[in-house]
Design goal:
There is one protein chain. The chain is mainly α and 427 residues long. The protein has one domain: Amino acid/polyamine transporter I (Up-down Bundle). Helix 4 packs across helix 9 and helix 4 runs parallel beside helix 10. The longest helix is centred in the N-terminal third of the chain and has 37 residues.
């Protein structure tokens, strides 16, 4: 019996050590998850739950699976080649003409996507502050946040602040998860919403927004570069995959929790979800009068964190594609992030929409429309012979192309709605 007891204890200790080891390997994937759980995710998921209840949960499930598949490709590429996605696109296309076209398309796509994303980040962060101090309008808060982000990026003293803000975002995310449970949702309706796809005539822009806020194109560049710094051996690929699945899986669950809590609070009530103060109401079942403050600080943290990382990601992607040295102190690197941030500041200051939530939704939809372009290049470089046994298997290509086709079909269905919404911002 004593031998059995000792054996059982030894087994438990081994399992605990394995768990600790796996938790230690959580890194780049967590950054990607924290990156897409920004103001765009909170806003888009809240709008989805408020307008459509649980019926669009399938789009969030699809987005989460798609993100895991594409981010795994990016991580594998970064570890095996020890280079970013931009460098691989540049190196693995032999034809000079095709290379020039590919690099040009990538740069334009990343610029457009990140400018839209950055505008949404600044507006989202400003919504958080406007929730706490409503006397100051978003058109003041947003550019002010942009100026502060500029100063921090220029100085390089943003990493500690960023860690604190990411912590606040994660706390807010857990709160949404808890609120979703407390709201006692209809489990049958949730399961149906996850596995039985349906969409109304007015849902397509929201669906594209859910995809765009989760499968973020610039995160593919960021992930490939970050894993190459974290892991240098091919044997580390397993750790990277575990990191990706756990981190992004949890991020997807949190996003679904926002949809569920919003559905419980707003669906069928006729309440217009057009401000941070209104969105904060979904946390009242758990936090009561503290909901406004908690949500406002969390949304500000989500927006400001993303407002720092988005310009940096654009700079990494662009300098890599152009073959420049990825030195954060170089002027070429700084010029890229300054353009992205600068245009985001200007657009957020213009106040192009009466509803900031509408502007954020359009920004996420723009990301989804750009996604297929970047995904095509990702799949292409992952099929290059230089990767040897680590290049895409048949099932990788099939899944990737299926996701690509579905995204293209959804983007096409929402294109007219997207164009009408953009038109409305300027009219």
């Amino acid at each position: 019996m004593e031998v059995l007891k000792d054996s059982s204890i030894e087994t438990i200790v081994k399992k605990e050590s394995k768990l600790k080891e796996r938790l230690k390997n959580i890194g780049p994937g967590a950054l990607i998850a924290a990156g897409f759980i920004g103001p765009g995710t909170i806003t888009t998921c809240t709008k989805s739950g408020a307008s459509s209840g649980y019926t669009l949960l399938w789009a969030m499930l699809f987005s989460t699976i798609a993100t895991i598949i594409f981010q795994e490709m990016a991580a594998r590429l970064g570890i095996i080649t020890q280079k970013g996605l931009g460098e691989n696109i540049r190196e693995k296309i032999s034809s000079k003409t095709l290379k020039t076209i590919a690099v040009g398309i990538v740069i334009v796509a990343i610029f457009l996507g990140n400018i839209a994303y950055e505008t949404g980040n600044l507006v989202g962060g400003s919504m958080g502050l406007s929730t706490l101090i409503p006397q100051v309008p978003n058109t003041i808060w947003a550019p002010l946040l942009g100026v502060v982000a500029f100063a921090l990026l220029w100085s390089g003293n943003y990493k500690k602040i960023e860690k604190i803000l990411i912590g606040l975002v994660l706390v807010m995310s857990v709160t949404f998860f808890t609120t979703a449970i407390v709201s006692k949702p209809d489990l049958g309706a949730i399961i149906k919403g996850m596995f039985v796809p349906s969409a109304g005539a007015n849902d397509w822009l929201t669906i594209v927004g859910l995809i765009g806020t989760t499968v973020v194109p610039y995160n593919l560049f960021l992930h490939a570069s970050s894993v190459s710094e974290r892991w240098t051996k091919k044997e580390d690929l397993k750790n990277a995959r575990i990191d990706t699945i756990i981190s992004i899986g949890l991020g997807g669950l949190i996003s679904m929790a926002v949809i569920i809590s919003a559905s419980a609070s707003f669906h069928g009530t006729g309440v217009a979800v057009d401000s941070g103060a209104v969105m904060a109401q979904q946390l009242e079942p758990l936090l009561g009068s503290w909901a406004k403050w908690f949500f406002g600080i969390g949304l500000f943290a989500a927006g400001f964190t993303s407002a720092i990382t988005a310009p940096l990601s654009a700079a990494f992607a662009t300098t890599g594609a152009l073959g420049y040295e990825k030195d954060m102190k170089s002027m070429k690197f700084k010029i890229v992030w300054m353009i992205v941030l600068g245009v985001g500041i200007v657009l957020s200051a213009l106040g192009m929409s009466e509803s900031p939530t509408e502007l954020i939704l359009v920004a996420q939809a723009a990301n989804a429309i750009i996604l297929p372009i970047i995904a095509i290049f990702l799949i292409y470089v992952l099929n290059h012979k230089d990767l040897g046994e680590y290049k895409n298997k048949l099932w990788n290509n099939v899944l990737g192309l299926c996701i690509l086709c579905v995204t293209l079909a959804i983007s096409y269905r929402s294109l007219l709605s997207f164009a009408e919404t953009v038109k409305g911002l300027f009219m």
